[in-house]
């Protein structure tokens, strides 16, 4: 719901159409009224996982996740993306209540998700009762860190928060996030893809759930374009170098260079005798991976001026426009087959 609100707020910023602003404001207010919990004793805000509507009209709040990967835990990424729509709406309206919600949610991250040891970073899950990231009840999520808990702050809300407020503290938060990514995620001695899952001490976790030692192509692309945005705020050679590294590797390892488009999840490591990364489950192409490819290479071209990046961006956009848009019934397909035909 929060990301839907983000879309309405962005549509208003692009068009000036008041219908979109009305939807963004009403959507933000709904999130605040129905899915926000303010713990005044701790000075933090939590966002509920869901609302279960009862037959008599009452609302049963659901705090801990009911998704399989995160079951009975509070995942960091859900709290992160709860801010996406409201913060984009704040950029339009300047509503101080939204800013206070965001500040209180950041206090939640700092107090309960952040690893305050020398290791640093943010844990991926906390226990809903003890609020501990290392509780035994968390099972395979105990003491874990991942791309979502560290990197997703930036595109979901933090870049927009820094743009909206101009406050130094949010730029500092962004820098901490990207320095952490540059320090721990590259693993090019082993694979052409970054490492995404970690234990508490940043040792690699290659046995977690569905991911195992697999790469999500779109996450690599997402890191590249976010690094470029950070590089535009506070330039660092390390940011540009890692973005260029990813941009150089991904067409060879994650793109379908014959038909176009970006693949989904593949084995990170080539086994002896293999020339291509094996697909984790299928060779279908997901809508969001295409968006990350378009974003990555357009922004790389925009910042660095390399025409090769523009060529790849245009190829990515051409595949998306040719196959993902349902020109007969409207809408966008969620997945297509490798050749572009809709996956039914």
Q: Please, could you describe this protein's structure?
A:
By secondary structure, this protein is mainly alpha-helical. It has helices at residues 2-15, 18-34, 76-82, 84-93, 96-113, 147-151, 153-165, 168-184, 217-233, 237-253, 287-304, 307-323, and strands at 36-39, 44-47, 50-53, 59-62, 74-75, 125-126, 145-146, 197-198, 214-216, 265-267, 285-286, 335-336. A hairpin with a 4-residue loop joins strand 1 (36-39) and strand 2 (44-47). Helix 1 runs antiparallel to helix 2 (18-34), helix 2 crosses helix 4 (84-93) and helix 9 runs antiparallel to helix 10. The chain is globular, with a radius of gyration of 20 Å. The two termini are 25 Å apart. 41% of the residues are buried. The model has no long low-confidence stretch (mean pLDDT 97).
End-to-end CA span = 25 Å
**How do the strands of the widest beta sheet line up side by side?**
1-2
Number of helices: 12
Mean residue pLDDT? 97
Helix-strand pattern, N to C? Answer: HHEEEEEHHHEEHHHEEHHEEHHE
Low-confidence stretches: none
What global shape is seen?
A: globular
Query: How many E strands?
Result: 12
Specify Rg, calculated over alpha carbons: 20 Å
Helix and strand content put the structural class at mainly alpha
Estimate the strand proportion: 5-15%
What does the main sheet amount to? 2 strands, antiparallel
- Please bin the fraction of helical residues: 40-55%
Question: What key attributes describe this structure?
Answer:
344 residues; mainly alpha; 12 strands; 10% strand; globular
């Amino acid at each position: 719901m929060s990301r839907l609100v983000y879309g309405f707020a962005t549509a208003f910023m692009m068009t000036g159409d008041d219908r979109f602003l009305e939807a963004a404001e009403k959507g933000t207010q709904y999130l605040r009224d129905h899915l926000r919990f303010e713990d005044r004793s701790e000075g933090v805000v939590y966002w509920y996982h869901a609302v279960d509507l009862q037959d008599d009209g009452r609302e049963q709040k659901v705090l801990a996740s009911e998704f399989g990967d995160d079951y009975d835990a509070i995942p960091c990424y859900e709290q992160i993306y709860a801010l996406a729509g409201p913060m984009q709406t704040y950029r339009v309206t300047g509503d101080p209540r939204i800013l206070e919600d965001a500040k209180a949610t950041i206090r939640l991250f700092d107090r309960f998700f952040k690893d305050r040891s020398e290791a640093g970073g943010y844990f991926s899950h906390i226990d809903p009762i003890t609020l501990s990231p290392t509780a035994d009840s968390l099972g395979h999520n105990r003491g874990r860190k991942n791309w979502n808990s560290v990197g997703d702050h930036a595109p979901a809300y933090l870049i927009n928060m820094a743009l909206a407020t101009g406050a130094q503290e949010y730029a500092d938060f962004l820098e901490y996030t990207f320095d952490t990514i540059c320090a721990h995620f590259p693993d090019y001695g082993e694979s052409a893809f970054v490492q995404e899952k970690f234990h508490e001490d940043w040792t690699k976790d290659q046995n977690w759930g569905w991911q195992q030692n697999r790469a999500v192509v779109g996450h690599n692309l997402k890191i590249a374009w976010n690094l470029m945005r950070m590089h535009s705020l506070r330039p660092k050679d390390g940011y540009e170098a890692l973005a260029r590294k990813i941009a150089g590797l991904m067409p060879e390892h994650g793109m379908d260079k014959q038909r176009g488009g970006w693949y989904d999840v593949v084995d990170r490591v080539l086994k002896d005798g293999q020339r291509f990364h094996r697909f984790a489950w299928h060779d279908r192409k997901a809508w969001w991976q295409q968006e990350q490819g378009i974003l990555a290479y357009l922004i790389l071209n925009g910042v660095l001026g390399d025409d090769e990046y523009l060529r790849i961006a245009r190829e990515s956009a051409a595949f998306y426009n040719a196959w993902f848009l349902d020109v007969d019934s409207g809408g966008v397909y969620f997945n297509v087959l490798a050749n572009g035909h809709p996956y039914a």
